[in-house]
């Protein structure tokens, strides 16, 4: 792959976007390589958690590639928008938790990719924005839909209509990120969270993510029914037997051998 690196360590797959001369901006090639990397990590039984980050000190992803978009006809823009949206669905629906380690600019499509991840950790230099209206366009990879769900309608409207950058500490205050850490500690913090997730049952994690995502847009009673069915289904798994037995036997469960 030209723009994407995947490294594996202790069941953690780190996917790095490396197109530093364009601040990791995403053209069709980056989108398609990222999609391939995610699909293969999600399928790989050895992978328990995925970390997504950008190469270099400056940017997570500075957005969709503006130079590529400048020449697009509406039909090409539709294809570009759909391929980016498709990627966000693959990330969001991943059965393995996806952590965005935001190491700089997360603008436009970059902010939207981070919104599709399950947990966001920002370095102190991270900057978030949906600046599309400044270019005479709108967010096309889910920003108008996921941002209000995450930070509330009022904050999302302000971010999308003003297009201003939001710094890391403000992002923390409004619930856009889970943690802010010094830039030098971003990898360590992302891994710390990944390792804490890895101690838990993979099937239980997969089922939790599915219930949260499917249930989010359901009526409460429907969501509760989804949850109780998923809960009872887990009682057929070796994983639940191991977890429950380990507690009774006063030992740590072993979910991954
Ligand atoms: N696309 C292409 N190249 C980019 C880029 C981008 N988004 N961001 C930066 N670059 C390139 C710059 O052009 C420059 O390249 P050269 O000129 O050296 O060839 C290089 O990266 C370094 O950037 P700067 O020289 O500008 O670096 P600075 O530190 O001075 O400034 C900056 C950093 C991030 C503030 C600035 O580069 C900037 O404002 N970049 C644009 C940020 C932005 O507006 N991002 C949002 C893009 S819009 C849709 C589908 C998708 C989308 C919308 C609709 N549908 C089909 C419906 C998504 C839209 C977006 O993401």
Give your account of this protein's structure:
With 257 residues, the chain is α/β, with parallel strands linked by helices. It has two domains: 195 residues, Alpha-Beta Complex (2-enoyl-CoA Hydratase, Chain A, domain 1), CATH 3.90.226; 47 residues, Orthogonal Bundle (Lyase 2-enoyl-coa Hydratase, Chain  A, domain 2). 49% of the residues lie in helices and 16% in strands. It contains eleven helices and ten strands. The strands form two sheets. The chain has a six-stranded mixed β-sheet with strand order 1-2-3-5-7-10, with helices on both faces. A four-stranded mixed β-sheet has the order 4-6-8-9. The longest helix is centred in the N-terminal third of the chain and has 19 residues. The two termini are 31 Å apart. 35% of the residues are buried. The structure holds 4-(N,N-dimethylamino)cinnamoyl-COA. The site of 4-(N,N-dimethylamino)cinnamoyl-COA has 24 residues, from helix 2, helix 3 and strand 6. 4-(N,N-dimethylamino)cinnamoyl-COA (DAK) binds next to helix 2, helix 3 and strand 6.
SSE ordering: EEHEEHHEEHEEHHEHEHHHH
Task: Name the CATH superfamily classification of the largest domain.
Answer: 2-enoyl-CoA Hydratase, Chain A, domain 1
Strand content: 15-25%
Overall geometry comes to globular
Rg calculated over all Cα atoms: 19 Å
Main-sheet strand order equals 1-2-3-5-7-10
Number of strands: 10
Ligands bound to this protein structure = 4-(N,N-dimethylamino)cinnamoyl-COA
- Continuous helix count: 11
The CATH topology of the largest domain is given as 2-enoyl-CoA Hydratase, Chain A, domain 1
